[in-house]
Automatic annotation (TrEMBL):
Keywords: Membrane, Signal, Transmembrane, Transmembrane helix
Subcellular location as annotated: Membrane
GO BP terms, alphabetized: protein localization to membrane
Top-level taxonomic group: Eukaryota
The UniProt record lists the keyword Ion transport: no
A matching Pfam family: EMP70
Membrane-topology descriptor: Multi-pass membrane protein
Entry similarity comment: Belongs to the nonaspanin (TM9SF) (TC 9.A.2) family.
Name under which the protein is recorded: Transmembrane 9 superfamily member
Amino-acid biosynthesis among keywords: no
Length: 234
């Protein structure tokens, strides 16, 4: 029998998280199938935006060898995720929408830019269903009768004729695994094994001094965020 040797590259091994521990969410450069030109994620935010977690390169997320070789640039975000904690209607940050920023975002939507987020080096996946228009209403609601596709990342926004809608509301779903006999000082630990994103465009209404927002889960009917009508992005 031949021997087998393995090398563990820094940043590739999964990380263990205890219950309630913060799970960092990072973002890669945005990509476009039209321009083929990567774009900094924070280009969709104001220069002095509170959404910017860091402004200098030295504080960016440490990339592993594979990311460095492929030229990826990971940056931290202000989204809050905790292991085994269900957080709803949280406000990550708020940006004032200047005319220059509005035009920049609209152009990036026209160029079909995709936002690429990661949790523990796992890319965020977006599922969407394609229904056959020839099927009956009952068949159309049957998930097994429809095609489900998965894409990496989500569109920055959508353009409907001359109206532009930004995907400003994100719902995260994390799948986790508890390794057998894995503990940290007597506490059980968990590993992230899946990361799903459900993007939507919502005109947010804040409350509690700006710490939370009204969500669809509470029965509220919210309008999409029209960039030409909005004064800020939440």
């Amino acid at each position: 029998m031949q021997g087998v040797a393995a090398v563990l590259l820094p940043g590739i091994a999964p990380r263990d998280y205890k219950e309630g521990e913060d799970v960092p969410l990072s973002v890669n450069e945005m990509t476009s199938v039209r321009t083929q030109l990567p774009m900094d994620y924070y280009k969709t935010h104001a220069t002095d935006s509170q959404c910017r977690v860091v402004t200098d390169k030295s504080a960016e997320v440490n990339a592993n060898l594979g990311e460095l070789l492929s030229g990826q640039m990971m940056s931290p975000t202000s989204y809050k995720i905790q292991m085994l904690r269900s957080l709803k209607c949280q406000i990550a940050c708020k940006d004032q929408l200047t005319p220059e920023l509005r035009d920049t975002i609209k152009q990036m939507i026209r160029d079909q830019y995709t936002v690429n987020m990661n949790v523990d080096r796992l890319p965020g996946a977006v599922k969407f269903t394609v229904r056959d228009p020839q099927k009956t209403a009952t068949e159309a609601n049957d998930e097994k009768a429809n095609q489900v596709f998965v894409m990496s990342g989500f569109p920055l926004g959508v353009q409907l004729k001359n109206q532009y809608y930004l995907h400003n509301h994100l719902k995260f779903k994390l799948e986790y695994h508890r390794p057998e006999d894995a503990e940290d000082n007597g506490f059980s630990v968990y590993r992230v094994v899946g990361f799903e994103i459900e993007p939507s465009s919502l005109k947010q209404f804040v409350r509690d001094g700006g710490d939370s927002a009204v969500c669809h889960s509470e029965g509220a009917t919210l309008e999409p965020l029209d960039l030409d009508k909005a004064e800020s992005i939440t």
